[in-house]
């Protein structure tokens, strides 16, 4: 998200009065938020009764982000401010296309983070673009998981290793773990080469366990999804590992013990 906003600002040119707020996410990676406060006296924070013209907003977008079509341009809950969505990247533009706002919009009456809700939808959509057979799956013994969690992992990450060492606990709780590759050191690094060796192994599960036990897998090369997974991770806002993505698109960074994760997933399913 930050990369896209910086790129937009660099291209703004005559739109020099654009306002850029500090980035905020519900995931905890950035604490600062742009919060839209309710102003009932003036009636400004409302659900729009009629659709505003978005032509000025779309004209600005075609100029500052050429060649990319937004997934959504829609009037936000705050009258006169448009929500612009590119995958899981979200920002806001004034109706005249002049002012750009970055940050989370929170309804203080309901305590709902409206931006994170939309961001979650975007993540969910992007996660559906990854073929199931490109993931390394650890499935409960009965073959009927209660929950499925996608985990972006790095074989050399301490908490990724800790999570993997407790795999039996997750499976016992009925949680299927689906690994996607995200070697944090980047393409060409030692971790990158190791994780490719894991994905290219005949027995990916055993090789993943070997690598997570700080052993060196046999060097292998094959057609693999590692760079595809890395690109996806960046698109949905992953910056560290492990990063857990729930079935609805919610993103949770970091290691979570199996019992606690099961409780969280049960509560989410009950919502």
UniProtKB/TrEMBL annotation:
It is found in: Periplasm. Residues 50-116 form the Disulphide bond isomerase DsbC/G N-terminal domain. Residues 147-265 form the Thioredoxin-like fold domain. Keywords: Disulfide bond, Periplasm, Redox-active center, Signal. Its main location: periplasm. One of its GO terms (cellular component) is periplasmic space. InterPro entries: DiS-bond_Isoase_DsbC/G, DiS-bond_isomerase_DsbC/G_N, DiS-bond_isomerase_DsbC/G_N_sf, Thiol:disulfide_interchange, Thioredoxin-like_fold, Thioredoxin-like_sf. The keyword Signal applies. The keyword Isomerase does not apply. PANTHER family: THIOL:DISULFIDE INTERCHANGE PROTEIN DSBC, THIOL:DISULFIDE INTERCHANGE PROTEIN DSBC-RELATED. Belongs to the thioredoxin family. DsbC subfamily. This is Thiol:disulfide interchange protein DsbC. It comes from hydrothermal vent metagenome. The lineage of its organism: unclassified sequences, metagenomes, ecological metagenomes.
């Amino acid at each position: 998200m930050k990369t896209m906003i910086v790129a937009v600002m660099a291209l703004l040119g005559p739109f020099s009065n654009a306002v850029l707020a500090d980035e905020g996410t519900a995931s905890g990676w950035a604490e600062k938020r742009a919060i839209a406060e309710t102003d009932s006296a003036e009636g400004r924070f409302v659900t729009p009764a009629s659709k505003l013209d978005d032509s000025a907003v779309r004209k600005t977008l075609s100029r500052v982000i050429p060649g990319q079509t937004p997934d959504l341009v829609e009037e936000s809950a705050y009258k006169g401010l448009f929500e612009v969505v590119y995958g899981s990247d979200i920002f806001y533009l004034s109706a005249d296309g002049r002012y750009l706002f970055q940050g989370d919009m929170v309804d203080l009456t309901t305590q709902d983070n409206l931006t994170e809700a939309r961001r979650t939808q975007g993540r969910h959509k992007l996660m559906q673009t990854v073929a199931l057979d490109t993931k390394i799956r650890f499935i409960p013994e009965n073959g009927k998981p209660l929950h499925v969690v996608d985990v972006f992992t790095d074989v050399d990450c301490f908490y990724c290793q800790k999570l993997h060492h407790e795999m039996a606990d997750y499976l016992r709780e009925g949680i299927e773990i689906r690994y996607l590759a995200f070697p944090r050191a980047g393409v060409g690094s030692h971790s990158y080469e190791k994780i490719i060796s894991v994905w290219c192994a005949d027995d990916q599960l055993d090789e993943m366990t070997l690598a997570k036990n700080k052993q060196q897998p046999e060097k292998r090369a094959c057609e693999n999804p590692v760079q595809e997974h890395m690109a996806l991770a960046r698109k949905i806002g992953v910056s560290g590992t492990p990063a857990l993505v729930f079935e609805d698109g919610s993103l949770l960074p970091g290691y979570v013990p199996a019992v606690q994760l099961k409780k969280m997933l049960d509560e989410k399913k009950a919502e």
